[in-house]
Design a protein that fits this description.
Blueprint (H helix, E strand, L loop, with lengths): L10 E5 L4 H12 L3 E6 L14 E4 L15 E4 L6 H6 L1 H22 L3 E7 L22 H20 L2 E7 L1 E3 L23 H9 L6 E4 L11 E2 L1 E3 H11 L8 E6 L5 E2 H12 L5 E4 L8 E2 L4 H7 L8 H15 L8
Parallel strand pairs: 1-2, 1-4, 2-3, 4-5, 5-6, 6-11, 7-10, 8-13, 9-14
Antiparallel strand pairs: 9-12
Helix pairs in contact: 1-6, 3-4, 5-7, 5-9, 7-9
Bound molecules: nicotinamide-adenine-dinucleotide (NAD).
């Protein structure tokens, strides 16, 4: 058995395991000695993102009933549509895939008697925060159909736990970043972020360093922050993955825990660009752009509850290290022009 090996190997379904976060978590489950079945429709994911050792089933979460049976100890549910801007243009897609898809999954789990769920929720459920750092008791007022659909799922899961005894955790991620090198050597494959279109700041900045984009847009530089640009909480994907393994053991039947996952410290857009310049040695030109609607000035998590309930402490909190890992992954992907269609 490998690092983090468990005494009792179990079998888990990972929906969305061909995507960025799901792939890294699936890899961590395998390294802990578990069996992993990945269910993904490859709508935004990539076969190359499914870790070696996982069984892959191409299909939709809406069809999970065909796959699930009593041999599964739990489901880790990452499959979703997750572009905030697209959700404003096409809200129906987000309600159907995120809320409708999860309802189908929950019913399939109940039918098969699968007792445990860990769900990818998001900081977007909070909307414009009144206080920072944001704790789980903060008001939820999402500013996009994406955030609203995720909040609806959090409520849906709470109801199913109360009514049918599911044990569940909703993990509200802040900004996930970085890449993960599976245990087994420095030359092994890296698992990282490749969304198309890309909307996350760190990979966008690195695309400029790779020469695939001329400049990075800075949306607003007149926010009430030290340098006028938005501040976000970046969490390394490997730290995030470790929290999922802890979450699998954190609740008892009937309980739904909602827990933020962030580092508890923020970095501005300009700090990220400066760090990427230092890591890549590229000048990375920036271009001023107007503020985007619904973009809060500061989003930083209180990670206190995760510390208390999951016993989780992030260990890869240096921005330079997060960017360096993302840079190594981005360079390896260079020449990759978009998903195979
Ligand atoms: N990346 C972040 O910073 C971040 C922040 C907050 C929350 N999240 C949430 O984490 C989860 C994973 O995010 P990601 O960045 O890895 O996204 P991703 O797009 O890389 O992964 C999502 C995966 O789900 C699959 N998928 C989508 N709908 C499906 C369906 N109906 N049936 C089967 N497969 C389906 C896609 O093909 C893809 O492989 C999402 O639920 C997202 O909302 C991500």
């Amino acid at each position: 058995m490998t690092r983090g090996a468990t005494a009792e190997p179990k079998k888990y379904l990972v929906t969305g395991g061909a995507g960025y976060v799901g792939g890294v978590v699936a890899q961590h489950l395998l390294e802990a000695g578990h069996r992993v079945v990945v269910l993904d429709d490859l709508s935004t994911g990539h076969l190359a993102g499914v870790p070696a050792g996982a069984e892959f089933v191409e299909g939709r979460v809406q069809e999970a009933a065909r796959l699930l049976d009593g041999t599964f100890a739990g489901v880790l549910h990452f499959a979703a549509s997750s572009q905030v801007g697209e959700s404003v243009e096409e809200p129906g897609k987000y309600w159907r895939n995120n809320a409708g898809g999860t309802l189908d999954l929950l019913e399939a789990m109940r039918g098969a008697g699968v007792p445990r769920l860990v769900f990818s929720s998001t900081a977007a459920t909070y909307g414009e925060p009144r206080n920072v750092p944001i704790s789980e008791t903060a008001p939820t007022a999402p500013t996009s159909p994406y955030g609203a659909s995720k909040l609806a799922v959090d409520h849906m899961i709470g109801g199913v736990c109360a009514a049918h005894g599911l044990a569940a955790v909703s993990l509200r991620y802040f900004n996930v970043a970085g890449a993960y090198r599976p245990v087994g050597g420095p030359d092994g494959p890296l698992l990282g972020e490749r969304h198309d279109p890309e909307s996350h700041l760190i990979p966008l900045v690195l695309q400029v360093a790779l020469g695939r984009r001329e400049a990075v847009s800075v949306f607003g530089d007149d926010y009430p922050t030290p340098d006028g640009t938005c501040v976000r909480d970046y969490i390394h994907v490997a730290d995030l993955a470790e929290a999922h393994l802890l979450a699998l053991e954190a609740t008892s039947p009937g309980e739904h825990l909602v827990c933020n996952l962030g580092n508890g410290s923020g970095f501005s857009v300009r700090e990220v660009i400066r760090t990427a310049r230092a890591v890549t040695g590229h000048p990375i030109p920036e271009r001023a752009a107007p503020r985007r609607a619904g973009d809060p000035a500061v989003l930083v998590a209180s990670a206190e509850l995760a510390r208390r309930r999951l016993g989780w402490r992030p260990s890869r909190t240096e921005l330079a290290g997060i960017v360096a890992d993302a840079w190594e992954f981005a360079r390896r992907q260079d020449g990759w022009k978009g998903p195979e269609r």
